[in-house]
Write a structure and sequence with these properties.
Blueprint lengths: L15 H10 L11 H6 L5 H12 L16 H21 L6 H8 L9 H8 L2 H15 L4 H4 L7 H14 L9 H11 L15 H14 L5 H29 L3 H32 L4 H27 L12
Helix pairs in contact: 1-3, 3-4, 3-11, 6-12, 7-10, 9-13, 10-13, 11-14, 12-13, 12-14
């Protein structure tokens, strides 16, 4: 499936909900029979079936799916289904991450590195193997090959310093006018260095629900103007936590003998995101909340929800690796 430039993959269903949705998308809007409400309400909100269904809906707003009519993007029936899935996803997140509106404390926690840190990037730096480095790249490829795209939806929804600072960050993410420096292209080079396929969407079937959820969250926030505060919070997490994590990944690449494109991708983020962190904290978040202080709780929710899903992702990956197994649904990742 995929639009003109969309993924060439034919996603495999992961349950009754995604199977029914894939069948519907194979027909033209008005002819395909969309999944009923019961399937949408019965699927595990954090499970493979529902998360894949959401991903299928969201990708129509990015590059589409080959063999799927572009008219599905704004089909009222499909939007109604997506809304139901989004409501369930949002309700689960709000139940699992009760939080307040102290954005200063939330941001300070983001930039405070724990001395006994235990995470995926720590594992890769200290004792990861080549195949685990490959798996990590496979997981992240669903977002990194469209890096910064979900956050671009914030631009028309901000004003003043927040808008200017966000545009500055996005300009650099998109290569500062140089196509070969677009971060998504740099990640494609990383994948080639790791002997992986750099085709957009190639590894969709390989990644589990925990990975899909981290990508779906960006689209959930980005496609709704009312959730702009939450998207700013999500953006803050990515930019504030990137420099130390990128340094660990750069060191992992160096230790395992990865090529210059793979090492260079994270070296780029160590430097660039250290500057971006300051812009996001003080200009994007700061100016937004000066203008719309009522969005403080939404920013905190975006930060907390992102943290929850990243923790679930890390738990899945580390649990599999420490047990000696693959963190992917299919292996090997080539």
């Amino acid at each position: 499936m995929g639009g003109q430039a969309g993924p060439a993959v034919q996603p495999l269903p992961r349950g009754e909900l995604s199977a029914a949705l894939l069948d519907a998308l194979a027909a033209d809007p008005g002819r395909g029979r969309l999944p009923g409400r019961a399937l949408a309400e019965e699927a595990d909100v954090y499970g493979d079936d529902l998360q894949l269904a959401l991903y299928l809906c969201y990708e129509l707003h990015y590059r589409g799916w080959q063999g799927v009519s572009d008219d599905w993007e704004w089909d009222p029936g499909l939007l109604g289904l997506r809304r139901l899935l989004e409501q369930r996803f949002t309700a689960a997140l709000r139940a699992d991450v009760p939080c307040g509106d102290d954005t200063r404390a939330a941001l300070e926690e983001l930039v405070t590195e724990r001395p006994d840190g235990r995470g995926v990037t720590h594992f890769l730096r200290d004792r990861g193997h080549w195949w685990q480095l490959q798996e990590y790249a496979v997981h992240r490829s669903l977002y990194q090959l469209k890096e910064a795209d979900p956050h671009a939806w914030m631009i028309p929804r901000l004003t003043g310093r927040a808008k200017a600072a966000l545009a500055t960050v996005e300009y650099e993410e998109f290569g500062a006018g140089r196509a070969e420096r677009v971060h998504a292209e740099l990640f494609a080079g990383l994948m080639r260095d790791l002997a992986l396929d750099d085709t957009y969407g190639h590894y969709l079937d390989a990644v589990p629900a925990a990975t899909l959820a981290t990508v779906n969250l960006m689209s959930l926030f980005g496609l709704h103007r009312a959730r702009r505060g939450a998207l700013v919070g999500h953006f803050a997490v990515l930019e504030c936590t990137s420099p130390p994590a990128s340094r660990r990944l750069m060191e992992a690449m160096q230790r395992l003998g990865a090529g210059p494109a793979a090492t260079g991708f994270y070296a780029e983020h160590v430097e660039a995101d250290a500057v971006h962190e300051q812009l996001v904290r003080h200009e994007v978040v700061g100016d937004l909340l000066e203008r719309e202080p009522r969005l403080a709780a939404d920013v905190c929710f975006g930060i907390a929800a992102t943290g929850l899903l990243e923790d679930r992702f890390a738990g899945h990956v580390l649990g599999a690796w420490e047990a000696g197994g693959s963190s992917l649904r299919t292996r090997p990742p080539v």
